[in-house]
C-alpha cells in the first residue's frame, strides 16, 4: 500500500484536544496512529519508503505532519510562501 498525501491538521487538533492542548510531536503522532484520527492508520503514520534518488528511507507522513503543524502554528493559508 502506498501513502497518499493529504491534510493532517484535523488529526493534529483532535490529538491535541485529547492531550489537553499541548504535547510533543512524538506524542501527537502516537495518538493519531493509535486512535485512527481522520482515518489515519499505524501504517500511514509509521511506514517508511526508500527514496529512488538517494536510496535513503523516509516517512512520507512526516511531510504532511510537519506542514500541518506549520499551518496551524503560523496560520499559513497555503497561498503564499512569504507573508509580510
Describe this structure in words.
- The protein is mainly α.
- The chain contains four helices and two strands.
- Strands 1-2 form a two-stranded antiparallel sheet.
- Strand 1 and strand 2 (57-58) form a beta hairpin.
- The longest helix is centred in the C-terminal third of the chain and has 15 residues, at 60-74.
- The protein is globular.
- The termini are far apart.
- 18% of the residues are buried.
- The model has no long low-confidence stretch (mean pLDDT 89).
Could you tell me the mean pLDDT? 89
Q: What percent of the residues sit in helical stretches (DSSP H or I)?
A: 40-55%
Strand order of the largest sheet: 1-2
Going by helix content, strand content and strand pairing, the class is mainly alpha
User: What is the CA-based Rg, rounded?
Assistant: 14 Å
* Proportion of beta-strand residues: under 5%
Unreliable runs, pLDDT <50, ≥5 residues? none
Total count of helical runs of at least 4 residues: 4
SSE arrangement, N to C: HHHEEH
N-end to C-end Cα span = 41 Å
The counted number of beta strands is: 2
Task: Give a quick account of the main beta sheet: strands, pairing sense, barrel closure.
Answer: 2 strands, antiparallel
The backbone outline, from C-alpha atoms, is globular
Amino acid at each position: 500500500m502506498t501513502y497518499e498525501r493529504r491534510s493532517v491538521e484535523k488529526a493534529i487538533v483532535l490529538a491535541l484536544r485529547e492531550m489537553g492542548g499541548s504535547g510533543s510531536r512524538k506524542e501527537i503522532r502516537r495518538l493519531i496512529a493509535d486512535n485512527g484520527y481522520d482515518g489515519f492508520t499505524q501504517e500511514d503514520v509509521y511506514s517508511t519508503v526508500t527514496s529512488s534518488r538517494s536510496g535513503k528511507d523516509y516517512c512520507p507522513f512526516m511531510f504532511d505532519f510537519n506542514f500541518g503543524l506549520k499551518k496551524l502554528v503560523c496560520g499559513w493559508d497555503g497561498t503564499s510562501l512569504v507573508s509580510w
